[in-house]
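Please decode residue identities from the backbone states below.
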């Protein structure tokens, strides 16, 4: 299995972090972005290159099966064991063990010594107090005080406690992060489009406990006959051209209510919850994945670990105050599938307006006051769009100018009319380079060099430099290169990346990013560059460059990263 460029970058960033720090990193990759191949590659290298022993922990058996399968594909000769009561396997002696935390959290001594432990869906790690993960990891550190921990997640925060990384937490720092928008642009995950339900419940009276709405209050609010009937009718109307619709209900009684109403509308609807018998659950999910069942309603079971790429509509009949849960629900529609152009999100719980777009979640620290998410709802077509739009891109409705009783303390950075540009200068914290091939393109299609600028903690901006193209694109690439290097412009993206990683380009100190109201993607329009490096020394040929730039995981045996 060949890793995607950002997956390889995640692996390399993890190895760098493990070598340069004594604590534990976290990798952040969006849902459907492929965390499992990253785990599999790190696990393979740890065993085969550095003679270590690896444990991979997950909390649902679907993730265990997926991880073990991908590991076998990445490294067919790797000896992999599974420890899971649900899968009826209790392997303990293999160099790589994939385990369910519920099955092993009191059995660290039985499993033996590990050099590396990886935790999938690591946002489940409690930053303090007790819990199964903390119980197991405490015992694992007694067996091997030098054991290193790596977390992987799409949502590195908890509603009740904030970010999962911190100096005193099990995970200490994010070592690599790639965003939803970037993977959509590159064609690795599916675009979303959203509409708010025409009928919505008023959630203003809901109380919050532990960062989330109280479950009983939510179900009582959402399980009103009129609301369920109108919502189901709208779901059927909006999904005439959709094939697989996943519905999130607020409780078991609410879910059965949705199922009954849809069936009265002559639409078969499956239902699964925590109480569903394993055989019935497996049969229902198989029919849904195979396309034999169009509508599937669930309660609290299909937010993580459920892989059905055919999902082209997600209906949220569950309000949540948790941005992580909101992201996980919507993320079920991220996966690519033949014939699937986008995934429609129907929101009857005000979640998009509460949290913002999934690529720009409004994460608040515990105790922080409410704030407006950067989205609004079109009153004509119910599309949920960015707040900067003055004209709805779905139906051309023109929004009236906002009324203000008092002026803001500073000027707004959002465009006031469609097409207005806003330029913002950012200090560059890090720059990475990789070879990019347009998704779906023929292998002979020209490649480009992807340049990714890290502008703050979790904000990245990319650009693509087209050395292998012709005409204006090639000329533009040559100008870009001449501004940064005394070396001749390369002819291939691979050569450009090798040279860039070898240090022949001037440092980029700052960039100016232009945002245009109504346009989907931002662009870089100006740079602050450092001095151009000196030319390469005589005799330093391309073979030397290749040797210097061997893959970041090709270390000497004694340079073990953990």
């Amino acid at each position: 299995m060949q890793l995607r460029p950002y997956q390889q970058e995640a692996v390399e960033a993890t190895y760098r972090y493990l070598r340069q720090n004594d604590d534990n990193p976290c990798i952040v990759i969006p849902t459907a972005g492929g965390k499992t191949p990253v785990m599999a590659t790190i696990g393979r290298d740890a065993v085969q290159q550095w003679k270590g022993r690896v444990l991979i922990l997950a909390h649902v058996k679907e993730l265990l099966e997926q991880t073990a399968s991908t590991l076998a594909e990445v490294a067919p000769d790797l000896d992999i064991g599974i420890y899971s009561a649900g899968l009826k396997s209790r392997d303990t002696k293999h160099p790589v063990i994939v385990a369910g935390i519920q099955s092993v959290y009191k059995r660290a001594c039985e499993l033996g010594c590990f050099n590396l432990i990886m935790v999938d869906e690591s946002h489940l790690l409690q930053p303090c107090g007790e819990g199964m993960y903390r119980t197991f990891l405490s015992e694992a550190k007694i067996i091997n005080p030098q054991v290193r921990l790596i977390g992987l997640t799409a949502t590195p925060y908890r509603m009740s406690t904030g970010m999962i990384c911190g100096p005193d937490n099990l995970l200490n720092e994010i070592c690599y992060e790639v965003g939803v928008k970037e993977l959509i642009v590159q064609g690795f995950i599916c675009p979303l489009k959203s509409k708010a339900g025409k009928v919505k419940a008023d959630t203003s009276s809901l109380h919050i406990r532990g960062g989330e709405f109280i479950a009983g209050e939510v179900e009582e609010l959402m399980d009103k006959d009129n609301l369920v009937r109108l919502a189901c009718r709208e779901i059927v109307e909006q999904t005439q051209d959709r094939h697989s619709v996943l519905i999130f209900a607020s409780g078991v009684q609410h879910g059965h209510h949705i199922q009954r109403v849809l069936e009265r509308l002559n639409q078969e609807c499956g239902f699964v919850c925590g109480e569903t018998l394993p055989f019935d659950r497996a049969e229902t999910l198989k029919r849904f994945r195979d396309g034999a069942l169009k509508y599937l309603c669930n309660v609290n079971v299909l937010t993580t670990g459920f892989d059905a790429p055919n999902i082209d509509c997600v209906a949220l009949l569950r309000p949540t105050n948790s941005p992580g849960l909101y992201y996980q629900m919507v993320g079920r529609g991220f996966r690519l599938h033949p014939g699937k152009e986008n995934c429609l999100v129907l929101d009857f719980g005000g979640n998009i307006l509460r949290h913002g777009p999934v690529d720009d979640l409004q994460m608040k620290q515990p105790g922080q006051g409410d704030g407006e998410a950067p989205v609004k709802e079109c009153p004509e077509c119910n599309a949920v769009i960015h707040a900067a739009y003055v004209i709805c891109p779905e139906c051309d409705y023109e929004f009236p100018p906002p009324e203000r009783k008092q002026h803001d303390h500073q000027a707004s950075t959002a465009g006031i009319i469609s097409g207005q540009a806003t330029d913002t200068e950012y200090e560059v914290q890090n720059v990475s380079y990789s070879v990019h091939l347009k998704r779906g393109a023929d292998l002979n299609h020209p490649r480009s060099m992807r340049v990714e600028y890290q502008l703050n903690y979790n904000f990245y901006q990319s650009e693509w430099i087209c050395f292998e193209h012709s005409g204006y694109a090639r000329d533009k690439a040559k100008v870009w290169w001449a501004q940064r290097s005394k070396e001749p412009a390369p002819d291939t993206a691979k050569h450009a990346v090798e040279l860039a990683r070898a240090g022949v380009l001037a440092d980029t100190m700052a960039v100016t990013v232009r945002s245009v109201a109504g346009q989907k993607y931002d662009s870089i329009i100006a740079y602050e560059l450092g001095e151009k490096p000196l030319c390469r020394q005589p005799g330093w040929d391309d073979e030397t460059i290749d040797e210097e730039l061997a893959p970041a995981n090709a270390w000497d045996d004694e340079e073990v990263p953990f």
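Observation: The radius of gyration is 25 Å.
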